[in-house]
Amino acid sequence: MGPLDTYLPYLLNRAGTRIATAFGEEVRPLGATLQIWRVLAALHERDGRRMGDLAQTTSIEMSTLTRLVDSMEKKDLVARRRDPEDARVVVLHAATAGRRLTQRLLPIAERYEKVALQGIGPKEAEQLKAALRRLYANMDGLANPRKGRG
Amino acid sequence: MGPLDTYLPYLLNRAGTRIATAFGEEVRPLGATLQIWRVLAALHERDGRRMGDLAQTTSIEMSTLTRLVDSMEKKDLVARRRDPEDARVVVLHAATAGRRLTQRLLPIAERYEKVALQGIGPKEAEQLKAALRRLYANMDGLANPRKGRG
DNA sequence: TCAAGATATTTGTAAATGCAAATAAATGAT
DNA sequence: ATCATTTATTTGCATTTACAAATATCTTGA
Fold first, then answer.
1. CA B50 – C1' C29 distance (Å)?
2. Does A137 contact chain B (CB < 8 Å)?
3. What domains can you pick out in chain A, each with its CATH number?
4. Which of A23, A25, A59, A132 to mutate to test the interface with B (most CBs of B within 10 A)?
5. pLDDT 10s digits, A8-23
6. Which terminus of chain A is less hemmed in, N or C, by CB atoms within 10 Å?
């Protein structure tokens, strides 16, 4: 067997953790976190999403998301509304401070993208992204996901 | 801005988390965890490492590692020894049950490698790994690492 | 309309994790 | 030999996070 850093799962998790931590520290001064960014980014892409949808697209667990949204509501980053069509559903909208914060986070996200990919070349970068999507999908059948089909 | 899953940090963290979780569940029946595997793999590569070295190569935080090693010692997976040269130093050795467990984990790690990389091709896989190492290194200067130069 | 079952979200609780302070031992200066 | 400084590891504590149970609402069928 080779050293630990020939193993893909290790490399992947290590890189993923570090970039997440680094990004998190970068945005802390703005009062944001990685998770907050994900929610705002998702709402920026499409506003008025339901909680379940958000949990799915941000990969944040539902119970975690609930508490996160609690705190984001207090800061006027987002607003919960009941869906009039179906009162079980809560839809989330970006609020004033939330939209402002999003505008400040976007350039940081772009910059991180660049820094992370230094010396990797645009073509390879696309391949990397494609591989990561593929890899995520490959894990679908295996363990963990209490999604799909229990 | 595009959807969240065009952002590298998101893709990376998402994939890294999922593969870690899946692997963790896979090895749980054997009484192992992802972290345990990392320590054992590191010791398999080179036995008798000091704690600081292990923390470095496994990307496990020192305080976390201490507690992890406590529990691994109880299971006879590893043994702590004081370095006679410098009594501040603790060196870690794989113990009997640890070596046995390592042998059982190795094929699982190999298999995970294969599953994760389904449809990705050996050449692209190598590029992916190289990119992940590079990317990890790229993050070095940025935030987070309380390493390097304080 | 009411009960039964399905779906969406929230709360309770315990485990994992990291930072900072504390401990232990070595090294160097007086 | 003793004190101050440095290095290595461990413990205290607060935060984060996930799983599971609880709650709320909707839908369907009698």
1. 29
2. no
3. 18-141 (1.10.10.10)
4. A132
5. 988 998 898 889 988 9
6. C
